């Protein structure tokens, strides 16, 4: 199959999932065309089946905001015609599904019918999409997609609750590449680089937005380190990072917290980690938690959104209500204080993560693609 993938090329979960999906499809022999405004951060162009096409938005004084959707839809039309692409897979309802629909209509005028699959990731629905300014466009884009998927049952339920959706929504969860993670695990992982032998290593990875509740991460760690020797690794960047750094200085724990910024070495960081913290206000899925579990790292998280579909309470970690910092810290210490308990949770976390291996998830997308393409034949 010849498939165009439209996504955000950033460190966010949707961009990572779209990129990894495309790369695995390419390894299986499909021809994949990534179409976005810059090269996705995890995209390797060493496979002859992988192509990247940059969407260039010309700057005109006439426009206060440059019309990316217009440039994207035009680029999609050109690439479909040039490479005979058979299917569009767009990640995020807006602006990508909206631009995809416009491309479909332009192509239809030239006698080319092409299906579009839209994958909903979360922010496009719960945060941006539900805004009154965007809600009609989001509803329209979802209903005009040929097929729609969501990354969790929770997100599907939210979408049906917030919008007047007539389309069927299929849940296809996010995934991880266990083979790649296990290959990386064979590389020596010296803990002494980050912590003393008696210290537990705790990690948080995110885009440092308010929804991630970064202050809760610092508060949980502060309580943990009062009970046991520990270090906190904060990976990512965003608007809440400066506040987090100030909190660490206020609590006097700045020498126990390392801020990495954005990193392409997530697996290397997680291989050092004993416990992962994700106390988010909400997560449509919780990809960061899954990536941690795939490295054998148990998770302390909130119980909102799709997190209970990924992190199994008392098995791969613990779930708590949003903002229950004291309970999260107590649960963390239950895991961290005893080596035997920690090792059991590590084994359980990996076992749960195996359900989300890309080899189990990718066939669901392939079946959907074939169904969509055959619908237009």
From TrEMBL:
One GO process term, biological-process aspect: bacillithiol biosynthetic process
UniProt xrefs under Pfam families: Glyco_transf_4, Glycos_transf_1
GO molecular function: glycosyltransferase activity
Taxonomy, superkingdom: Bacteria
Domain Glycosyltransferase subfamily 4-like N-terminal: residue ranges: 11-179
Residues annotated as domain Glycosyl transferase family: 195-349
PANTHER family: SULFOQUINOVOSYL TRANSFERASE SQD2
Protein name in the entry: N-acetyl-alpha-D-glucosaminyl L-malate synthase BshA
Biological source species: Flavobacterium laiguense
């Amino acid at each position: 199959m010849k498939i165009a993938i439209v996504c955000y090329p950033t460190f966010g979960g949707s961009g990572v999932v779209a990129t990894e999906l495309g790369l695995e499809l390419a390894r299986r022999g499909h021809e994949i065309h990534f179409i976005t405004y810059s090269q996705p951060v995890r995209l390797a162009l060493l496979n002859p089946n992988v192509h990247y096409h940059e969407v260039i938005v010309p700057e005109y004084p006439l426009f206060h905001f440059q019309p990316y959707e217009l440039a994207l839809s035009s680029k999609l039309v050109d690439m479909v015609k040039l490479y005979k692409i058979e299917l569009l897979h767009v990640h995020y309802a807006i602006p990508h599904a909206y631009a995809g629909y416009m491309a479909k209509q332009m192509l239809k005028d030239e006698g080319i019918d092409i299906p579009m699959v839209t994958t909903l990731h979360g922010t496009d629905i719960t945060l941006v999409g539900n805004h009154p300014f965007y809600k009609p466009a989001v509803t329209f884009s979802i209903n005009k997609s040929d097929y729609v998927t969501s990354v969790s049952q929770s997100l599907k339920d939210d979408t049906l609750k917030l919008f007047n959706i007539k389309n069927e929504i299929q849940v296809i969860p996010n995934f991880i590449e266990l083979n790649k993670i296990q290959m990386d695990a064979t590389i020596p992982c010296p803990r002494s680089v980050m912590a003393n032998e008696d210290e537990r290593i705790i990690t948080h990875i995110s885009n440092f937005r308010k929804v991630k509740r970064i202050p809760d991460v610092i508060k949980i760690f502060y309580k943990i380190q009062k009970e046991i020797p520990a270090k906190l690794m904060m990976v990512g960047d965003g608007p809440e990072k400066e506040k987090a750094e100030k909190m660490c200085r206020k609590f006097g724990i700045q020498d126990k917290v390392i801020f990495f910024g954005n990193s392409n070495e997530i697996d290397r960081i997680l291989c050092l980690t004993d416990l992962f913290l994700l106390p988010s206000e909400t997560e449509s899925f919780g990809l960061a938690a899954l990536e941690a579990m795939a490295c054998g790292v148990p998770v302390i998280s909130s119980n909102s959104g799709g997190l209970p579909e990924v992190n199994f309470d008392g098995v791969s970690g613990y779930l708590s209500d949003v903002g229950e910092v004291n309970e999260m810290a107590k649960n963390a210490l239950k895991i961290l204080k005893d080596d035997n308990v920690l090792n059991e949770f590590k084994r359980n976390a990996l076992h749960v993560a195996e359900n989300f291996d890309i080899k189990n998830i990718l066939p669901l997308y392939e079946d959907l693609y074939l169904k969509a393409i055959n619908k237009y034949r």
